[in-house]
Amino acid sequence: MYEDDEGFLYPVVDKEKCIDCGLCEIVCPCQNDSKKKRTNFLDIYAIKNKNEKIRMQSSSGGVFTLLAEEVIKKGGVVFGACFSDDWEVKHHYTESIEGLAAFRGSKYVQSYIGTSYQKVESFLKQGRIVMFTGTPCQVAALKRYLRREYDNLLTVDFICHGVPSPKIWRIYLNKAVTDYCDTQSSLTSSCKKCLQSVEFRSKIKSWKNYRYRMVFSKITKNGKEIMFAYSSLFSENVYMRMFLSGLILRPSCYECPSKAGKSGSDITIGDFWGVENVVPQFDDDKGISLLLMNNSRFMPLLSEVHSRFESLKLPVDIICKYNKSFLFSAKEPLERNRFFLLLYKGDDFFSFGQLVWKKNGKVNLISKVNRFCIWLKKLVS
């Protein structure tokens, strides 16, 4: 796998070792689009974890942790995306409940799969339950890699807007950390090592108007450790603006072959956007998960954790009305080629990304309207 100029990994064939078996083409999700969209679901639920601490650490209602904890208790293994020591996003696995914390929360960067598929297969052949969580295309790729069904494999994908470039993330993080630390006059210069956490979807203020947040721990010149944070509303953060506008997504995301349930996952999870319009009595602005049961294979697992969550059964049309990313790919911005040309030339592509957001700032407008509605509701009550 080699990184191109945009920062995305692509497979490159070593022709000296290739035996022309064609297997890589047979299992490629992009070259084998099933065209079969899911039009029916076993059940659709709105769910919130009763454990408030876990729910606040999660992007929405904390349903991932509910399922994953039960798999671990049965002696299973859970795969998900986490940050590496240098804040790259990669897929990894855990065999402990404590290890699930690293997988909680959205990470808006394409994760590095590495040897995860091989490890999944190894655990499955040992007879252990494996829960694999990833984007729809990652789940589809895993299933094609395995080339057979396993009764002990639980696949969970999520409603996906698209995956941003790891290269853009590296550049942004280096710039953001350096810029912020430079404002702390009492601190030394090795700032990236003091970064303690990154939250793309912090609920410190609100779930619907989430914030991008970084927390630092630093030793001052006097030997005293201090904690400080950088936080901004998602619609005011340059990285989130570039992501939500679709500017920095992988090219295949604009024609995703795994949308609309075509990944073959057992369960699909996501944010229950629109909950305030559908079941306002269930909405506390702390995060509500949407859960789609795509088949009955793991319905018993959901039943086993039923006492640990609150839920409401929902009509199917909720998906089409409030979660269009389940059905439709992100639209490619007209300015995308120019953006990456600026990146290649070393020009200020961040400023250009800001201009694109302001030009196409529908999300920003919606955010302001939502904040006004929330304020008005509190005022009336």
What does this protein look like?
The longest helix has 19 residues, at 362-380. The protein folds into two domains: 2-163 and 249-326, Aspartate Aminotransferase, domain 2; 335-380, no CATH class. Helix 5 links the parallel strand 6 (130-134) and strand 7 (153-158). The protein contains 13 helices and 13 strands. The chain is globular, with a radius of gyration of 21 Å. The N and C termini lie far apart (56 Å). Helix content is 32%, strand content 20%. It is an alpha+beta fold and 381 residues long. Strands 5-4-6-7-11-12-3-13 form an eight-stranded mixed sheet, with helices on both faces. A three-stranded antiparallel sheet has the order 8-9-10, with no helix packed on it. A two-stranded antiparallel ribbon has the order 1-2.
Cα gyration radius (Å): 21 Å
> Percent of residues in helical segments?
25-40%
What is the CATH C level class of the largest domain, in words?
Alpha Beta
Structural class: alpha+beta
Major sheet: 8 strands, mixed
**Spatial gap, N to C terminus:** 56 Å
Number of helices: 13
- Which parts are unreliable, with pLDDT below 50 for 5 consecutive residues or more? 183-189
Name the helix and strand elements from N-terminus to C-terminus, one letter apiece: EEHEHHEEHEHEHEEEHEHEHEHHHH
